[in-house]
TrEMBL record:
GO terms for molecular function: 3'-nucleotidase activity; 5'-nucleotidase activity; exopolyphosphatase activity; metal ion binding; nucleotide binding. InterPro entries: SurE, SurE-like_Pase/nucleotidase, SurE-like_sf. Keywords: Cytoplasm, Hydrolase, Metal-binding, Nucleotide-binding. This is 5'-nucleotidase.
Length: 253
C-alpha cells in the first residue's frame, strides 16, 4: 500500500511529518510531494509552474520526515500534485492521499477554498482515498493529539469505497487528555472569517476580514471544534442533483 503526503502550507511545514508518521505506522509506503511554497486558498486548482514544458519538481528534505522517505518540492498547487500522483507522477499510484496537517482550521462552507481539502478532493475523483487534516492553531504544540485523531480517521476512511467521499478532520490544539472526543459534524454555514469589500477609489477595492464567532452554530464543525472536540466531516464533490427540474429542449432553439 502506498500513501502520498501533501499539503497547502508548503514543503517546510511541520504538519507533513505528522501525517508521514501516521501513514508509516499504518503500514504504508510513503512519498511526500508538497508545494515548494505556500498555496493556501488554492482550492482544487491545477496551477503549476513550468520550464520548457516541464513541471518544476525538486528532490528535497522535509523537516522531521525520516531520511528513507522520498520528498519532493513541487511548483504546483496541491490538487495538481494529487492529480499527478494519480497518474504515477511520484512513483506508483497511491492508495491514499493524506493532506495537511494544515496550520489552522478548515471548517464550514469555506472548505471549498482550501488547498488542503482540494488535494484530497482531487485524489477522490481519481478513485483514491482522500484525507484532509487541520489543527486549529497557527503554531500547534500538541501534535500527539493530531496524530491520534488522524490515525483514527485514516482507519475509518480506508474501510469505505475510495469514491465514497473525502474525510475532513479538524483537531483542537489541546493535550490528548483534554480532548473532549471525536464527533461527526456538519459544515458550519460560514467560514473562519467574514470578508467585506469596499470600493475606495475609481474601481479600486479594499477587502477587510473579521473573525466569526463559532458559537453561533454550536453543533457544526466550527462550533464543536471551538468547544474542544475533534470533528470529522465526510465531503462529497463533484456532486449533482438528479432530481432537478431543468427544462429540456430537443433540436435548435
Amino acid at each position: 500500500m502506498r500513501a502520498l503526503i501533501t499539503n497547502d502550507d508548503g514543503i517546510a511545514s511541520p504538519g507533513l511529518a505528522v501525517l508521514v508518521d501516521v501513514a508509516l505506522e499504518a503500514g504504508y509506503e510513503v512519498v511526500v510531494a508538497a508545494p515548494a511554497r505556500e498555496s493556501s486558498g488554492a482550492s482544487a486548482s491545477l496551477l503549476g509552474a513550468e520550464r520548457d514544458g516541464t513541471l518544476l519538481v525538486d528532490p528535497t528534505r522535509a523537516p522531521g520526515v525520516p531520511d528513507h522517505v522520498t520528498c519532493y518540492a513541487v511548483r504546483a498547487a496541491p490538487a495538481l500534485i494529487a492529480f499527478l500522483a494519480a497518474h504515477d507522477g511520484f512513483g506508483p499510484r497511491p492508495d491514499v492521499v493524506l493532506s495537511g496537517v494544515n496550520l489552522g482550521a478548515n471548517t464550514g462552507h469555506a472548505v471549498i477554498h482550501s488547498g488542503t481539502v482540494g488535494a484530497a478532493l482531487s485524489a477522490m475523483t481519481h478513485g483514491i482515498h482522500g484525507l484532509a487534516v487541520s489543527v486549529a492553531s497557527a503554531r500547534p504544540r500538541h501534535w500527539d493529539t493530531v496524530r491520534g485523531v488522524a490515525a483514527r480517521g485514516l482507519r475509518w476512511l480506508t474501510d469505505r469505497p475510495a469514491r465514497g467521499g473525502v474525510l475532513n478532520v479538524n483537531v483542537p490544539d489541546v493535550p490528548a487528555d483534554r480532548l473532549e472526543g471525536v464527533r461527526s459534524a456538519p459544515l458550519a454555514s460560514f467560514g473562519a472569517v467574514q470578508a467585506r469589500v469596499h470600493e475606495v477609489d475609481r474601481g479600486q477595492l479594499m477587502v477587510t476580514y473579521s473573525e466569526i464567532d463559532p458559537a453561533r452554530d454550536a453543533e457544526s464543525d466550527a462550533g464543536l471544534l471551538a468547544r474542544g472536540w475533534a470533528t470529522m466531516t465526510l465531503l462529497q464533490a463533484p456532486c449533482f442533483d438528479p432530481d432537478a427540474d431543468i427544462e429540456e429542449v430537443t433540436g435548435p432553439l
